[in-house]
Each structure stands twice: as structure tokens, then as C-alpha cells.
Design goal:
Radius of gyration of chain A: 14 Å
Oligomer: heterodimer
Distance between the termini of chain A: 41 Å
Largest sheet of chain B: 7 strands, mixed
Structural class of chain A: mainly beta
Mean pLDDT of chain B: 93
Low-confidence stretches of chain B: none
Strand content of chain B: over 45%
Order of helices and strands of chain A: EEEEEEEEEEEE
Number of helices of chain B: 0
Largest interface: A-B, 25 and 25 residues
Number of strands of chain A: 12
Helix content of chain A: under 10%
Distance between the termini of chain B: 36 Å
Strand content of chain A: over 45%
Low-confidence stretches of chain A: none
């Protein structure tokens, strides 16, 4: 069965420091890959997506992610975080015939230290 | 263009009551998906509907839960005889066709059961 693992429940980063959030998935072929951000009490905003092609994808708000097939990973990165980046980040996968049925990681809560 | 509209944003019910959650998809989108987010967890797929048809309800509890997407009007997720464990955020997403990604998400309905 397909699954998505975000191994870090919480991550604390100083403002201005770099960030990497990890995401590993389980699926035999290349899935559709997404990162969403959710601010408290809010809905989900798409940061970036990977379908095919260049394995390094650029998203909004200065985020990027790299698809590594050999590691089944799709880690999210930002070179310098801002206090407004504090939120919860979700990795999601759509795969196979039921690719509409997105499979979600449990999320990583990002805390920014001043 | 309006995005996915969900209402109410917050809903409080007592145990045993019925909860009705509404979702108006992006204009022109005829495919609707419902997801549930329990506290401290990622989203879980519940059901996929097209106009007047349930396509995939594999993620929906067999009892008390039902969903519809009528020819006219919003999609409705109905929970009968609510229990404490139904407390969650319920998100709706829409797309113009089943393969289209990414899905567009609403801001969710936070359901609290007293």
C-alpha cells in the first residue's frame, strides 16, 4: 500500500537559518508529489508539486523540493526562513489509477525562533 | 474566481445530532473530494464524487456517514448521530477531472462534538 512518512513531528529553526523538511513515500513507480502548508485554523495552500521532468522544483514563498527516486524522497528546503513560515507542512502523494486519492504524511510543525 | 467554499467554518454539535457540511467547488469543477483531518494527523481520503455519482467511497466509515453531490447545489457530507470521535477538520477539494492535479482545497469545516 502507498504511504507517506514525515519523520519529524516538530522542527525548530532560528529565523534566517536554512530549513529542510523530510518526506519519504512508498510506491513502485513515480507518483505525483506535493507539499502543502497549513497555518493554524486555515486551509491548505499548495507550495509546489512534482509530476515529471526536472527533479528540482521551485515553489512559492522561496521554497524548493528535490525528488530523489533512489531514496523515495521529496524533501522540502528553504535557504532562509522567516517568522511567517511558522506553520504545519504536509507532504502528499497521488499515485496509480487512484491518483485522485491523495495520501498524506502526518505533517511537520515548523517553529521559528526569533 | 472563487475558490472552493466550505461552510460552516466551525460547527458544534451534541452527541446524537446530525452534522451537515457543505462544499461548493471551484466554478466549472465537477469532481469533489472529501478528506478528514484528525488532531495531530494528516488528511485521510474519505470520498470522491462527480455530479450525481459517488465514484469512490472507500475511505468513508460504513455507518452514519454519507455524501452527495447533486446536479444543482453544493456537495454535502452528512454525519448522523455524531459521536465524540467525529470531532475533526473536514476538507473538501475539487478538480475539473479525476486526473487533474493539484486539487484545489477549501479552508475546511472544524467539527466539534460536545
Amino acid at each position: 500500500a502507498q504511504s507517506v512518512t514525515q519523520p519529524d513531528i516538530h522542527i525548530t529553526v532560528s529565523e534566517g537559518a536554512s530549513l529542510e523538511l523530510r518526506c519519504n513515500y512508498s510506491y513502485g513507480a513515480t507518483p505525483y508529489l506535493f507539499w502543502y502548508v497549513q497555518s493554524p485554523g486555515q486551509g491548505l495552500q499548495l507550495l509546489l508539486k512534482y509530476f515529471s521532468g526536472d527533479t528540482l522544483v521551485q515553489g512559492i514563498k522561496g521554497f524548493e523540493a528535490e525528488f530523489k527516486r533512489s531514496q523515495s524522497s521529496f524533501n522540502l528546503r528553504k535557504p532562509s526562513v522567516h517568522w511567517s513560515d511558522a506553520a504545519e507542512y504536509f507532504c502528499a502523494v497521488g499515485a496509480g489509477d487512484s491518483n485522485y486519492q491523495l495520501i498524506w504524511g502526518a505533517g511537520t510543525k515548523l517553529i521559528i525562533k526569533p | 474566481n472563487a475558490g472552493v467554499m466550505q461552510n460552516p467554518r466551525h460547527l458544534v454539535r451534541r452527541r446524537g445530532q446530525e452534522a451537515r457540511l457543505r462544499c461548493s467547488p471551484v466554478k466549472g469543477h465537477s469532481h469533489v473530494y472529501w478528506y478528514r483531518q484528525l488532531p495531530e494527523e494528516g488528511l485521510k481520503f474519505m470520498v470522491y464524487l462527480q455530479k450525481e455519482n459517488i465514484i469512490d467511497e472507500s475511505g468513508m466509515p460504513k455507518e452514519r456517514f454519507s455524501a452527495e453531490f447533486p446536479k444543482e447545489g453544493p456537495s454535502i457530507l452528512r454525519i448522523q448521530q455524531v459521536v465524540r470521535g467525529d470531532s475533526a477538520a473536514y476538507f473538501c477539494a475539487s478538480s475539473p477531472d479525476r486526473a487533474y492535479q493539484p486539487q484545489h482545497f477549501g479552508d475546511g469545516t472544524r467539527l466539534s462534538i460536545l
